[in-house]
Every structure is written in C-alpha cells, then in structure tokens.
Amino acid sequence: MEGTVKWFNRRKGYGFLAGDDGNEYFVHHSAVQGDAFLNENDKVTFEPVQDDRGRKAQNVVKADGQGQEQEQEEEQKEE
To answer: Which residue range forms the structural domain that includes residue 46?
Structure first.
C-alpha cells in the first residue's frame, strides 16, 4: 500500500502514516526498512496489518530521494 507520513517522532521512535485507503497506521522505527528516517509528508509504501491494538504498518519503505535534505538538517539540529 502507498501512503504519506502524517508525523514521526525520532526521539520516541514512532509515528503515524495516512494510507491511501483513508486509514491511519501506527509505525514504529523498527518497521522502517534500511536506515531511512521518516519525515512529515514523505511518501512511503508499506504492508498494512491489523492486530489487537489496531492498524500498523510493516516493511515501510520511503520513496526514493525523499527527505534527504531534511534529514541532514535535522541531524545538524540535534548536534
């Protein structure tokens, strides 16, 4: 499924995605593939799953090239 990052808190390591199906999905940093960081409005693809706590995103992959400049700016702010 495709979707967009609504928000993601790096310090806490989680956030929410807006799926193209109109639903929201919880995303934990461990579900993000590679070493990508998620930023608000990034386009992603993911596997939606439902468990006893609600909708979650697994195998989250950020669209190529999205957010690289913002990641560098965020890293500089944290230093």
So the answer is: 2-78
How many domains in the chain?
1
Whole-prediction pTM: 0.78
**C-alpha–C-alpha distance, residues 29 and 78, integer Å:** 18
**How far apart, in whole angstroms, are the C-alpha atoms of residue 73 and residue 24?**
27
Mean pLDDT, rounded, of the chain: 87
- CATH number for the domain harbouring residue 74: 2.40.50.140
Digit-coded pLDDT (tens) for 49-77: 999 999 999 999 998 755 554 555 555 55
Cα–Cα dist 33/63, whole Å? 11
